[in-house]
Amino acid sequence: MARLSSPEELENFRQEILSKRDPNRPCISICAGAGCIASGADEVIEAFKAQIEKEGLTAKVDTKGTGCPGFCERGPVVVIYPEEICYLQVTAEDVPEIISHTIKEKKVVERLLFVDSVTGEKAIHESDISFYKNQERNVLCNNIKIDSKSIDDYLAIGGYSALTKVLSKMTDVEVLEEVKKSNLRGRGGAGFPAGRKWEGSRNAPEPIKYVIVNADEGDPGAFMDRALLEGNPHSILEGLIIGGYAIGSHEGYFYVRQEYPLAVENINLAIKQAQEYGLLGENILGSGFDFKVFVHQGAGAFVCGESTALMTSLEGRVGEPRPKYTRSNIKGLWGRPSVLNNVETWANVPLIINKGADWFTQIGTESSKGTKIFSLVGKITNTGLVEVPMGMTLKDIIYKIGGGIPDGKKFKAVQTGGPSGGCIPEDQLDLKVGFDELTKAGSMMGSGGMIVLDEDTCMVDVARYFINFLTDESCGKCVPCREGLRQMHRILTNITEGKGKEGDIELLEELSETAVEASLCALGKSAPNPFLSTLRYFRDEYEAHIKEKRCPALVCKELIAYHIDPDKCTACMICLRKCPADAIIGEKKKIHIVDQEKCTKCGTCFEVCPSKFGAVTKISGEPVPEPIAEEKRTITKKSKKESKKK
Amino acid sequence: MEIDKVDQIIDKHNGEASSLLQILLDIQSKNSWLPKEVLGRVSEKVDVPLNRIQHIATFYKAFSLVPKGRHQVHICVGTACHVRGATRILDTVEEATGIKPGETDLDLKFSLETVNCLGCCALGPVVEVDGKVHGKMSPVKTAEVLKIYE
User: Which of A110, A168, A328, A634 is spaced 20 to 30 A from A57 at the CA atom?
Assistant: First the structure.
């Protein structure tokens, strides 16, 4: 199509798209995000298309592969418009029933609805589901409404109206002032005010400037940026163009991590479409403003999420951070002023322009405004992406939205802020989420990972895990990070293997202090956080590992043993057959025992032992009971009956 | 890998040194690893010393300087998967394939890698084989999945 050459042309074109669309026409939206695809969404989409064709409904019903609505655990998620009926865990076999029942007869397929785990009530609409009901979805809400590969869909929901507003009615200074007034803080981790960052670049004398999207979402357990990149790429692109306009930049970059191929595909497509429509390139919408965008893929290095390392990597070098004597908004990519913001930060910009800074500042706390997307994962009933206003308590997020801990287990801690964040224990659950509040509690906001840990999680192991991760990802440039973390990892590994000794904790504290004080970049400076915060709240677990050689959560392999309770074992042979190490001795009608010499502690026996028997147990900090004598192992008929009665 | 294919990729990126990462990623995705002579060719065409290219190829995890197996097994050891038992999944795969992360078996059947997060945290623990994600894994299920691959 011809390039749109003025804001009016864009508005007319939008009306044209809308006039062709009937809001009452049935539309089947299937989540095509990476999570749902992993659960088989591709087959479901194909099945819907085939079934609709088979029944001759092609002209009457639309199907759409949409962005991720966040409820990945119950994927594939299907929403049927205009009724907004939400079906979860849909398989290709369910498709004919959905078409005949819901599309043709307008009835609901009960078994595919969400059932509240507490009340047992079924929810028909997305907005009735407890997981969604308590959220405030300003950024994520459009994901399920649009086909992530269609610019027309984005235009139909009012997309690029912020860009037209900026180009036709606002000066660059007005845009900057609006963003400053909104007090939008960077969603990537540090929470630096975006407006101030922009202003620094704008005022820098160098004429060539850059705007960059940090889409190197490296924090394990965090996937909100992936959902936005895959689901609504145009919203990020629109924010980036507006940012470019405000600071006087004509070149933008997306730096996307290599593990997200679908995100790269969708962003590239979005850029191509925007170019065709005249929303990118030269003289955008006749305003005289030129802007082009490039996509760079990362190559698997966590440190490249750090702003200066990312810029070095964009230059085609090894992603090592640079000292920040001069901030990168003054001297960044190729030594020029560069504004780097996180995906979610950019996606908030069009909203602020459209609805105004006053609207934005109504949401949130004193120092943290707007909403934040968290990825609520780990040992939690409703896993997925949640967008909540800043200032909601952790308790509300975990219990009201997340539905609490599954399998009747007890909550232990929540880990926020990615590998450099910290663990927050139960007695601090009334903490309100916000940049400063989380830092005070010894953790941090980070990019928004929220990993829930239950009583089966060993805190020393968690600290060891994160330090190991960071040791691996340290770029190796500065000594406190490279060597300090390596030694911390060694000591923590010793502790989890039962080789801990007095003085280890003090030594770890000393190493932490050095890394915090002397590292070059944020990776090293914050790396000891997981250790420091777990020590602050769970010192007793460290001491149990070191002094009693006991792992209270029964996790650390070297400190536990598997044992079969002879009173409970019914000699059912299940664990014996499944054991990959042939470490279980026994036969039919003969109580099984674990050969401790052969056992690799894989836990398979513990897992497969039917819960009605529960004969396999884990032991730590005490000797394993001697196996019962050979002659007592035979189960006589009488005792079998008895065990059945129980 | 034929040299003219390498040249094509380099030309696609206009032979710019700032696109080195993108060039190497493209070669890696076509060839699954980076042979020495290919790196030499890139160095020549882009006019960047070979040692800088080696630095890049060894720094970033996505690159491999040794041949890869027919099937790429990626075990997610991200936090969400870790707390749901990813270590035991990794143990199972090591046991079944006889290789450790970063290695390829002698028959060139499997290459094993750990990855830090595939962004499918809701489905953890997760194993990805040749780009297909298998979610909610247990040691028993993992062993069964590996058997599918020839």
Answer: A110
